[in-house]
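quick one
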Amino acid sequence: MSITGVYKGLDNVPIKETVISTIDGEKGKLYYVGYSVEELAEKSNYEEVSFLLLHKRLPTGEELKDFSNKLMKERTIPNEIWSILEKTPPGAPLMDKLKAGVDLLGLFDGEAEKTDKAARLSTAIRIISKIATLVAGVYRLKKGLQPLEPDPGLNHASNFLYMATGKKPNALESKIMDVTFILHAEHELPASSTAALVVASTLSDLYSAVSAGIGALKGPLHGGANERALEMLMSIKTPEEAEQYVLRELASKRKIMGFGHRVYKTFDPRALIFKSYLEQLSEMRKDRKLLEIANRIESVMIRELGSKLIYPNIDLYSGPVFNLLGLDKEIFTPIFAAARSVGWIAHILEYWEDNRLIRPRAVYIGPGPRRYVPVDER
Ligand code: CMC
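structure w/ carboxymethyl coenzyme *A:
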């Protein structure tokens, strides 16, 4: 069979059916199993959203209690894993430490290779729970601090923030962290979910698939953009300077981090939610500098590139929010990974219900068959 035509970047190539989530890129809407993220961010919590994504329906009160309890009980990490991670080079990227941590979790999980539905769901809960502890722990180790014991009295997101910063969050900080986890939980099939799915389609294990997702998320065109967006905001001193910065970068044909999206051709709805929390947090901290710079960049970008349908994405406002929560930029993408673990796994479990090995083709454009020339004759 001759293969022609290349779907570069797999733009608009569907590779599975799903009931987990859908994006309306024209209207700037995102739904998890039919529920809008705006409503989930306002009324739900990460535990409930995780149940929703894994089971494709909202839990009853009893089911939610049971699920939250299971997540809470799985938070600890074996000490052997901490001692290995403690010996990794201090300067190595946190995403690489996280990826190594997830692989180690797989090695230490005696149930990792089990393939029945119940075992896979238990493994899923273990990963979603422990990955947050891993992120907080590798962050602290990198700062020369010891990982903290999880606090069973706090929900998933608040406990994460506590384990990362060592401080119990107040009500607004708690809500923002929960919303962060909800908004990063799922997003159909970006590069990281696709990478995880490719691994899972070979019937490899969940840890290997999640580890692949982390590798893909690390890149600056995907999850890594949040760190870069904050670096940009922090390098600019005033809103006036922000305007000059954008014009200079665009004139040099450089991309502005936190803008543009393969699917959204208007505002990313998650960006708007983060923006409103950035406003509240800036008010609480009495520090509006990053907000004002981000606002100016947004208006200049829309003026300059709105005709190309380039609008803010989630990463423009998530970075300054994390910064005001007291988190260093190197933990931003790992937080994204911790929250997204449930989306990756939900897609994998759905795909495994009717698995087909993902094996695309390449269009060969090289030389025709020819004789091998030994090295001393070349
Ligand atoms: N700044 C300036 N110009 C841009 C930007 C940007 N951020 N994004 C796209 N463009 C321009 C691009 O140069 C191109 O112009 P032209 O037609 O003149 O060549 C046009 O818009 C189309 O862009 P594209 O790169 O072909 O679009 P894409 O669908 O391949 O890219 C993207 C999507 C996210 C990779 C890209 O917008 C980008 O690199 N953005 C900056 C990085 C970023 O913020 N990433 C986070 C994505 S959201 C979080 C996540 O889900 O991971």
